[in-house]
Amino acid sequence: MAELVQRSLEDRLPELEQLERVGLFSRREIKAVIKKVSALEYKIHRRALSKEDFIRYIQYEINLLELIKKRRLRIGYSFKKEEIEFSIVPRIHSIFKRATAKWKSDLQLWLSHVAFCKKWNCKTQLSKVFSAMLAIHPDKPALWIMAAKWEMEDRLSSESARHLFLRALRFHPESPKVYQEFFRMELMHAEKQRKEKQELEHAKIDVVELEYSEEILNGQLARIIYKDAVLKIKGAEFHLSLLSIVKLFDFAQDLQKEILEDLKILHADEPLTWDYMARRELEVESLPCAEYSSKLTKASDLARKEDCCCAVYEKAVSAVPTGAMWKCYVTFCLERFKRKTNSKELREKRQEKLLAAFLRAHESTLLEEALYKQWVEVLLELNKLETAAEISTVATERFSHSVEVWQMRLQVLMKLKSDDVPQRFEEAFCQVKTKDTLPLWILWVEWSEGVNGVTVTEELFQRSILSTNRAVSVTMKEKYLDWAYRTGGYKKAKRVFASLHENRPFSLEFFKMMIQIEKEQEASKMLNLREFYERAVREFGSTDPDLWLAYIKEELSHQQGKPENCGQIHWRALKMLQGEQVEEFVSKYALLQTRES
């Protein structure tokens, strides 16, 4: 091992001598580099190899390169790069190669090598890295795409990129992303060749000898990829993704039309197809700007386009009467309704269409739960409280087990200041599963606090903490204690705590809240704090090291505290905590002792 390290150091001597000779490094710095490199070399040549040692060595060499770069800029010296940098870079490649050969499955290591190659423009080496990486990780489509993009964009080799995509499809014959990027690459290549040909023709250079393929120029290769892709991967979403790509290329109008026609035929019963066809009406060319006599003309043109969109949606909901199709229709109307406009007529028309779409979807019993909530929000925004109450009532009948729908209905009733709120809460608790009732309890007590007296609200809190669901009981105890302190002060909070401290389940936050309340008092008593901490560690002392540390700090910092108790608390903490928590507690306790001393 020593011979290998010595040989490696000897190989470095020419570059180190150059660094000193040209004034980039001092003799003292060269000695420090040799010492550091010697230690790193020993670590990567021992029997028990560690990945972290290789990463540290690579990072050190990269930092050295960056330092040399900064020193060159500072003194304005740009010579001898072959003897200095170009001897360090191959060594970094060698270390990367050893590391990736040892830890083949570490993808981050491979990607770090790729990033290094790109930064230092090592094209030949990067090509080898990609080949080795893809041989080990052929199951990751993103790597194939990365390699192909590099071949296309950096090496300007469309043949190599095409070859990589074809290989990727052998491993991932049903990968949408591979097909999308392959399709995009062929269109980009065709566009690039078309521009080259036009420039040459403009310069009056004979292009016959260059043999530009008409098939490539017209996007025929992209068409072949598209045809193969839609045979392998079904669904309108993928089809639309290819359409969105081809729309970026003006020369591929024929291919765009073909994809669009195929979409209509192959996916005529899919909501996404109809949604796309409807929204296309907004892209229809408007009148020239000069023909707009006023803002009113522009608004009427936009209204005409939206009418065309809605006409397509009307056909869609007749042809494909599903919840998903109605969702597309309503979502479109909602988007248009939320768009700002100065035209009162257009705004009213959008409102009318939206409310009509909501109503028809509801009457067809195909309106989804989330859309009912949006419907009610729109009605509230329009100040139609009575209608909102009716719709929320219907929603709770249709989705009787949904806590979100019940919340919505109850909030509408609260806005109306209805007398039925308590009865509706009772009804909601009968319908919603116990494990989902926490939002209802919180809403009820918050409403009661603002409307009812203290007695009624406290009765609600006492009901809620009796819930059989742990999450409900725990959370409502915290809120009960907080409410008691806000409304009745310290005495009431302490009385509530006393009534609950034996009533499990608890949360740590419940005890922390009571401790904080005690500490906020002018005459804070350590006797009370000690009781609260003792109850907290009894429940959570086996899992929370920070609780024990807070207890110790309290004994040390409080005027009535007893520092002599800290040793006993420390011993008890070590007995109760387990595993890594013991180590965490010991290290934090040692840090606390250091600060105190």
From TrEMBL:
Residues 309-577 form the U3 small nucleolar RNA-associated protein 6 homolog C-terminal domain. GO terms for molecular function: snoRNA binding. Keywords: Nucleus, Repeat, rRNA processing. GO terms for cellular component: Pwp2p-containing subcomplex of 90S preribosome; small-subunit processome. Residues 9-89 form the U3 small nucleolar RNA-associated protein 6 N-terminal domain. It holds the Pfam family U3_assoc_6. Belongs to the UTP6 family. This is U3 small nucleolar RNA-associated protein 6 homolog. The lineage of its organism: Eukaryota, Metazoa, Chordata, Craniata, Vertebrata. The gene is UTP6.
